[in-house]
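Annotators were shown the component list below and the corresponding predicted structure, then asked to write short factual statements about the assembly.
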Amino acid sequence: MNALSTTRTPAATLDHLNGLPPTTPGDQARSPSGRQNHFRIFVLETRAELMKLLRMPGFTLPAFAFPLMFYGLFGITFGRSQQIGPLTMAGYLLATYGAFGVIGANIFSFGVGIATERGQGWMLLKRAMPLPPVIHFLARMVVGMAFSLVILIGLFALGGFAGGIALPLATWVKLATWLTLGGLPFAAFGLALGYLCGPNAAPAVINLIYLPMAFVSGLWLPYEVLPGLFKTLAPWLPAFHLAQPALGILGADTHAPVARSVAYLLAFTAISMVVGIAAYRRDHKTWG
Amino acid sequence: MRKLLMLIAGLAALIAFFLSLPTPPANGAATATSPESAIVIRNVRLFDGVAVHDAMTVVVEGGTIAAIGPAPSDGSGGATRERVVIPDGAEIIDGAGKTLMPGLIDAHTHTWGDALERALLFGVTTEIDMFTDQASAASMRSEQAEGSVHDRADLVSAGTLVTAAGGHGTEYGITIPTLDGPEQAQAFVDARLAEGSDFIKIVYDDAGGHWPTLDTATLRAAIEAAHARNVLAVVHVSTHEAARTAIEHGADGLVHVWSDELGADGLFAMAAEKGVFVIPTLSVTATMAGTPNVTHLDQDPAIAPYLTPAETGALSRVIEGLPVREDRLAIASKATHELATSGVVILAGTDAPNPGTVHGASMHGELSLLVEAGLSPIAALAAATAEPARAFGLDDRGLVAPGLRADLLLVDGDPTRDITRTRHIVGIWKAGRRVERSQGDTALEGRVKAPDTEAFAQFDQDILDAAFGFGWQPTTDERMGGTSTTSLTLVSPGSRDTAGALLVKGAIGPGFPFPWAGAMVFPGEQPMEMVDFSAKREVVFQARGDGGRYRLMLFAESIGQIPASTFFVASETWQEHRINLRELTQDLRGVWGLAFVAGPAQGDYAFEIDGVSIR
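Structure shown to annotators:
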């Protein structure tokens, strides 16, 4: 609010609309270093991304509503008396729909978001701004995490107040932290997809990866009830490795050690980053 | 600045949300999301509800019994392979020297207060209730249906019983509907079933003309009304004649055995032929015979530590005002034996919490009484597990069999030879979840200790108060139907030239057999709140009055509802009285009231007390 409401010359105001730090000589004199400027850009960019999220309910609402709706159906309606190993169905699916929601939030924000904005020429325009690309992606990341947290809060409220789930405070916090941070590899994956796919193909391609991966990894229905082929495939999929430690936090018997899941996700992030950066460079050559 | 505030508000809301999420209860019960991991009890003697099998391995998964098989010959799984699959990560329990059996089912109880919690701590995983508050039974049933009940026994209840106006069942101060004639029987039974009754219990007992009861036509109509709706009709009787009539008119079961006389003329054969079951309730019969604590549960080191002071007191309590007939237990035991040998199904039930019985612990006493009556230990165990489940149609429990609920009791030793071994509990599981047993005196944790101050009440100020606790209240027998009156007035001067004293004045009237009226004081912050008086020895006070005999009454957990009392004479001049509290009860851990009262002699009374101290 502050940044937009300060009285400035018309030229300075334009700069603000572009999300830039003030460039009047006086302001520059007050900024002791470029690092502080970058932080400011980051804050403004995060705000702008957040505003975009709020003002484009076409993306936000489904990404928020789907995990909640499915969890309500499978976890709450049927899940209170059924047991999956040591967990109630409501408890089990809390972890897996948490993973499902978090993956969706990140993969769509980066994948479909970037592909679409590339198509609109918005990413090209961004390059004309004195905005380091890293900061833009960091801002997207923070917003993705915030959105993940909102989805988790919705799921936790449903599970806790309607699903009969009671956990020590530390367990609630641990689960939220793991899932929120565990969404980041999927942000990297989304980045790669966003630069690899054309703007029109992106939503279809991403759904074709996201939904089957979620199902085979046991996010919709418990891994334990999946057919044998899926059980064999699941340990090769990243979604599986986000869900298993989450289940472990709730006290379930997991099908992969936590260390293996973490290693998998780190490797998955690194590969996605390499591919993503390559695709990003290719994209810039094509358009640049 | 505003941004910062918004950020802080957002963070605060986030923290508040996480703090508001449900957390498991602090008493260590497992959380709702991780209730029961797999349990394997290896190489155990198994009483499955019917028969005994040596060296078995039982696997429990997801709250039910998953598999049962012979244990490997060396007992450890080393030399030969286990014939049941042991799940990964299962808790393995060595069953050598122990016996696993189904959780106990007490077939005759009345569940009030913490009855079901107490029952579970002694291995009783299901209680069949013969009369309780219909509304609380309904809420318990719905909680059980949700599968969320892990800290108390399950309830199966008759709800409101069927009795005549003014008959047995109406004397407890709770207004209940009564049945007037056979033509109303179906509507009456349907109303009970609509309220949620799991079966119908009918009272057919006039206690020798003491109160009215249903006539035989109405009894028959009520039984048939229950049968028309496909539910059991069980009947309360106390004489062999009433038993005969109830069986002849189609009762499915008798909830007591008779104890007036043995009876003959084919009564036992008829009971067997008609296929009724009988719940002898020898525990409460022992009380009626004047020997409430006949099995000495409170002396058994396997039971005593788990009893609360109130339970220890209750085990020795007699029924006030009921004439004792010493041969009742012998007759009831003989009748039980005759029934069993004639082939009648016997079910173990205690009738807790009637005087002399408590929920949970008394079930172990009942088993002993059944064996003393002549049942084999195996027959007694079946009467507490498989038989009641079958009789009441509880087909998910009562046996240790694959697919059934894992309501289990693991005891040390062999109760199929020595029935008292059921008391040596090693583990209790309800629906596969282990029950943590707490020692009886944990009820005392957090109980307030009486302050060290000796001076308790001086009556020298303008207000009627005490050094600690809720303070003074008038007390009379009015709520018991009496007509006695009292008034409390501060007067001056007091004893030994102090400023004031308490004048207690009124009249003792008729209406209640044990009339009283006077001044009561509560040592707890709330009326009836327990205070630990263990460090106190005596009550010392000054009294004067009209020369009459008055009583100091002590109300304590260990004594029960009827207080212990001792007399003092209020002479015309002030006199000091010392009363040793331990003469009133040995267990002073739960004192909740003291009273200075007149009675039982009728007439006007007046006395003053002053300088009350508790040392």
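Statements collected:
1. Residues 186 and 355 of chain B are 34 Å apart (CA to CA).
2. Chain B touches chain A at residues 2-3, 14, 17-19, 21-25, 31-38, 62-63, 88-89, 146-148 (CB under 8 Å).
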